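Box S2. Input/output pair 1.
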Amino acid sequence: MRRCEIVGTGSWLPAGTVTFGDHTRYRIAPDESHLDALATASRRALDAAGVAPDEVDLVLGASAAGVQPIPCTAALVLEQLTSGGRAAAFDVNSTCTSFITALDVASRYLALGDAETALIFSGDVGTRFLNPDQPEAFQLFSDAAAAVVVRRTDRDAGVLASAQRTWPAHAHDTELRGGLSAHPAAAYAGGDPADYLFDMDGRAALLAMARVLPGFFASFFEASGLTTDDCDLVVPHQASPAMAPMLRRLGFAEGQFVDAVAEYGNMVSASVPFTLVRALESGRVGRGDTVLLCGTAAGLTANALALRL
């Protein structure tokens, strides 16, 4: 076990909502910023932990898309929190599952003693990049941010096991091509506007997920020595309505996992931490419980991390 514990949580949701049938989606307002959302969630997590920004040793930004190409989003959020301090700040990106990857990375710093306190934040404003001509994606996504403060501990708490794998044959099933070196912003006027909008082949992504996840989870459970029964709560990436049937297929019982797709939709990198924060703050899980964080992301990447609270 890589010993660490969550000592503070915070989240942010925009006030504006839209509905598609009985599904609610949260959409950031034109006068709100991605950076403010991330900084707000981070401040709330630090306040809940009773930790000052200058006491943080490690700041990990875990968003699918950053605020700007340079510097890293972690540095920009840290600037909002303090003008000094001692933290190392950098970004970790596995798109929708970035938070799981970042928690995995942070737990290693903490376990080795290279850091005592880490701040991890995630969040995206993906609705600013949606293509209304792709209704499946346009009606699925919400904007949100979430953050946690994690500390070294002597308690029997921390990361029990983790796994991550990428299947590059599916790298282009879900993508946003424009904005960096392949399609620079300067080329937008003469380029294809679709390159600067989110592009998802939902059917291809779903079929790929269905093919790879059974083997991925079988390997994870075999290597970790855990079983589905050891998981008090599964906190999956809220990818789509197909998430719940897939988890049942993997052997998880109804009520053992969080299904908030209708209530919040796909929050990109914020999905897992936002759902985890809600479970912690509502008392659905608490000290001593084992939580399985998991999901798939563009790439195609899959993550699983078992955390004892």
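Box S3. Input/output pair 2.
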Amino acid sequence: MPQLFDRIPGTISLSGGLPDLTVLPAAKIAELTSRMLRLGSRTLLQYSTPTVSSSLIPAILDLAARTGMTPDPDHLVPTAGSQLGMMMVANILDGDAIVCDSPTYPGALAAWASADMDLIGVAGDEEGLNPDALAHTISDLRGRGRRVAAVYTTPTFQNPTGSVQSEARRADILEICARNDLLVIEDDPYGMLSFEGRTWPALKSMDPDRVIYLGTFSKVFAPGVRCGWIDPPADLVDDLRAMCEVMTLSPSALNQAIIGEYHRRHGWDDLLEAYRASYRDRAQALSHALESELTQSGQPTTWTWRTPQGGFYLWLENVSGVSGADVARRAAANGVRVVPGLHFDPAGLDSPSMRVSFSYPRPTELTEGARRLAAALVETGVSA
């Protein structure tokens, strides 16, 4: 995986998808955490069982209802974030290949590879995973004797492209998976982060018995409080609980209690709206600054991107086929870090693309980062 979160003096990082924690009410969280520890430290700091605590259930049900899901609390399996959830799922699946969006999240590539599964990418379009290409890929793999374990996808504000599957697209994907008797792994870290507050029906809400849903509090609360959940089909619950125990021994009772108590006192609405407003402003600042810098260069650009409607990222693509890795190296020399497309390619191939994150830097840093990145695009001859 790329080193996304390293800090280099003098360099602006537009690489890692760090949340903007300036909107998090730290004083309120400190107060409620202190009170809980005074009253219940011997329980909250003790080993726990591989179940989601009763105090956290309402916080999960609130989020789930916003995308049409109605989880059975007894079926929820705790994780320390979606990355661990992917590792747990990967280790209980039977097969030698996972079919996924291409490009896709590098953490998923690492998770499936750790379980000795090949990740087979399917080209997408502006709505993400392409159903016709998906059906062809599944048929081709099975025709060559491969055992396809599942389809992995992020339907809402996909990482890295930011694409959103329409409801019709989601239905088509689920129909193909049903026809081929395949599980679907739905990764949903950004589903609450539409800049306008819009939500889409989760795949899990449309076919609960086929979809393994990976939920996380990293983007709607804070990543340092490592906490998430899996909502699997009923027949996978016991296997996933056993894997949870193997991989974590004991999920954090304290982390679950902090999130649960925050939600009990404050709900999600205010915090979600604060995050959305922050990312909306940052996305506009970066997109406008990059467009302005390239225009001022006096050269028509061969890079394109869609203005984000949610999530954390701009996905830049070059129509003339220039190496994204070469441009990223030049950008780093100019003092700005981005992630070239090869890190998101299931086959690890270079591509004329790169991911640029706007979620964490201050607006002034985004403006300066855009200036440095635009200079790299011009210097490497990608504007002509």
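Caption for Box S3: The longest strand covers residues 118-125. The chain has a mean pLDDT of 94.
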